[in-house]
Amino acid sequence: MTVNVAGATDVVVVGAGPVGLMLAGELRLGGADVVVLERLAAPTTESRASTLHARTMEILDQRGLLADLGTPPDEPMGHFGGLPMDLRLPGCPYPGQWKVPQTRTEELLGAWAARLGAEVRRGHRVTALEQHPDRAVVQAAGPGGDPVRITAAYVVGCDGEDSTVRRLAGVSFPGSDARRELIRADVDGIDIRGRRFERLPRGLAIAARRPDGVTRVMVHAFGRAPRAAEASFADLVDAWRHVTGEDLSAGTPLWVNAFGDVSRQAEHYRQGRVLLAGDAAHAQMPIGGQALNLGLQDAVNLGWKLAAVVGGRGPERLLDSYHEERHAVGRQVLSGIRAQARLLLGGPEVTGLREVFGELLPYEAVRSRLAGTISGLDIRYGGTPTDAGRPGGGPHPLTGRRLPPLLLRLRSGPAAYGAEGGDPGTDHSSVRTPDLLRGARGVLLVTADDEDRRRLLTRTAGPFGASVDVVTAAPPAGGPDDSPPDGADAVLIRPDGYVAWAGTSAAGLEAALTTWFTRDTRALSAASKRRPAERHPSPTTDPYTGSHIGRRENMGKLTGKTALVTGASRGMGRATAERLAREGALVAVHYATGADAAAEVVERIEKDGGRGFAVQAELGAPGGVHDLFLGLEAALKERTGATELNILVNNAGVMGGVAPEDTTPEQFDRIFAVNAKAPFFIIQRALAIMPDGGRIVNISSGLTRFANPDEIAYAMSKGAVEMLALHFAKLLGPRGITINSVAPGITRNSNPVFDVPEAVTAMAGLSTFNRVGEPEDIADVVAFLVSDDARWITGSFVDASGGTLLG
Question: What architecture is domain 181-260?
Fold first, then answer.
């Protein structure tokens, strides 16, 4: 039999129910290509689930889908195990149970996913699944029965309680099978009174008539075990007659099924390149519609993370965080559902228990706790970074929780977004926080009153612009439900609407950003080309109203990056340190003996609005490189919460100035120790803390191409430096790290010869431009090579001699 190779994609989603379609839309918002395989040839007409809870409604609001949903009936009263309970909670605009048939939810999400470019292939039954270190392969039987193979980076099973993906991946599904069942159906042509969890001597009866005349009927007969076969209309008629004494046989069933109190949960939501969501990850009795809502929220948690990983905008550990976060939520929900199932379907033996619960529910602490669990509003994800700048330490109380919908006033003028100028206190417009999440991107909401604090926090988020938008706003004059949390200058919101960090310190923010996002701007360039246009407008524009909602700062090219410049207390090193700081980098100013000069460089950097610190080490001495990195890493940790180094400039060097016949072994060894040996081991040590996409520049010399017999040893050492760039470039290419050599010519420094006009004139004559080089000339070349603009340049020799080497 011929196998039809159907190509490759980023993600294969198996199952085109509401969960699979929600996930497909989330993946497309994140720029991932997705193929959805569905066993059924057409959407089902059964509306098994009919309830959307408060948190799910907030999620639909975040994605701009509520307008398409319309205004479904809302019932603020819910239940716990059949006991009436008010589901309303403060700070929630969508309390209660929203009555939306599953068919409508599926239709809504299917149209949304299709608009975003998701490909849904119906009539495809998955038959095999292979996992490889770098890919997964799905085999399915297509509509004609012929096998189809699709290669993907990841596969997600959203194919229900009897998940084929879960079985093929070998994921265990521990728990208990059903011991009780509830038969349900939509029946037309009957006229019975409404019943809400009516307990009768022989069982439980529920009936609710819809506006179109169809009645949803559910019945459980005490003591009856679940049937092995699918429930039929005759089974429903028999059970209803047994419990109520009424006859439904004259009605016309639109569909009939039965569900039991099964309770199972996948041991792992991620197994290599296979993930599970919805009922494929957990099977439970759908009491109060919690099963569908739990699954949709799985999809939103997973979607942005998986899209970020395949697009290179997020660390792979995000996929493990999906299991950690949602497995814990699922375990809690399943525990509550088991308790409800016992109260709801138990016979006379649970009467006393129901009475106790009935007495407890009126207590507000009990009611709000259970309402939060049912609605999904009480979720708090753990494992978030602490805010080192917060009194007492530890995360802000809002960290890990959903951000309640807020109405905020944006600050007008460039200063609102961290740039220069503007009136920071002037209101421009207002924005709802759900509107900021339409594109499924992270949002840094900066609310600090102090303009300098706003700028600092905004600059910290700069290198994460591939995934995070920065919006600066003033809290409204309304009550606490409409205001950002106390004790926080900024709030980092994940694409799923949960708070990754809230606090005051740039170090805490930096730690949170690096936990959830990456700095790789090259990955953004690739991913953004695949993004669907419909849901990815400019961050300054609301995708539905066209109104202004905020923008990112026009920051320096190196904002948020960290840099080490060796020999930075004077000359080219100083100019380079100051130049990189002006571009936004946090610069480590290395020096050997000039402590005062290094302090002056740092002072100048800070006076100009940049960030820098001094670090001392004698590079020519034993242990010098080790001392350098001890000081560097401690200082980076203190300022950013991490030890990550993005940019390394090996500038430190010593000249000989001795005729070759007078050069001693000690002088020769020192020249090579400082100029060649130290750069090698600095690079070696830096690579351990340098992320992919880093930049290395080694300062060589025009003397590797222009003869000066008095500097043979020096020229030899600089020739060795150039070999570092050539050979390391080959090694580091797969990591996206560039390394290049810059060869200055005659460049002004502290040598007294530059104070002699005749000497300067003579040296200037060697340059095509008829002048000597200035340190800033070299600094500008280095700044280019460490920027993303030079991402395609590596292993090169850059002549920065002002044309001296042209001959």
Answer: 2-Layer Sandwich (3.30)
